[in-house]
Amino acid sequence: MKKERIMFWTATILIALFEGVMPALTWQTEMAKEGIRHLGYPEYFGNALVVFKIAGVLALLIPQVPKRIKEWAYAGFAFDFIFATISHAAVDGINGQAFFPLVVLAVLAVSYIYYHKLNSTPKRT
Length: 125
Known about the structure:
By secondary structure, this protein is mainly α. It has one domain (2-120). The protein has 5 helices and no strands. α1 runs antiparallel to α3, α1 (2-26) packs across α5 and α3 packs antiparallel against α4 (67-92). The mean pLDDT is 93.
């Protein structure tokens, strides 16, 4: 059980840093705005994306959030990473930047798998 908790929290904290903390700290920088423009999206899309990323991270981190909401957060992040890969590949071609969201998707998958392992095992009293 200890290994499962370590794996879950390590992966979940990495997702929280990549998808919650970093966007919250950098979303109004010129570099972030240019990144959204470069991919062909309007600036308001980047703003909405940051709000939903922060909400998703909170849903994953707060234990009291209902399981159904957590499932939607995991799904939302999975769609985000898949579409980020598609966007980068369409605009810049197939390169490392296009594949990086898939690396983060793998970390998300680890979090998701261990979330279910921790919640499917009977609680010890």
